[in-house]
């Protein structure tokens, strides 16, 4: 009974981790496609802090 419970919990935790990793990858891919494909800029620039400073500055009106 105990081994079955541990196996069930391990399966659930690994499934949650897999979904979390896939969500993070989808967000990263979406950011890169949006910034690079639609914005016409280098997709890897989305990971630079200066891009995010500019983005949040525009949102806050600075």
From TrEMBL:
What domain of life is recorded for the organism?
Answer: Bacteria
Membrane-crossing residues?
12-35
- Record keywords: Membrane, Transmembrane, Transmembrane helix
Q: What is the protein's given name?
A: DNA-directed RNA polymerase subunit beta
- What organism is listed for this UniProt entry? Pseudolactococcus hodotermopsidis
């Amino acid at each position: 009974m105990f081994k079955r419970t541990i196996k069930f919990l391990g399966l659930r935790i690994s499934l949650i981790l897999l979904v979390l990793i896939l969500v993070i990858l989808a967000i990263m891919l979406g950011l890169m496609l949006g910034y690079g494909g639609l914005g016409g800029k280098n997709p890897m620039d989305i990971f630079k802090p200066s891009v995010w400073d500019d983005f949040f500055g525009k949102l806050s009106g600075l």
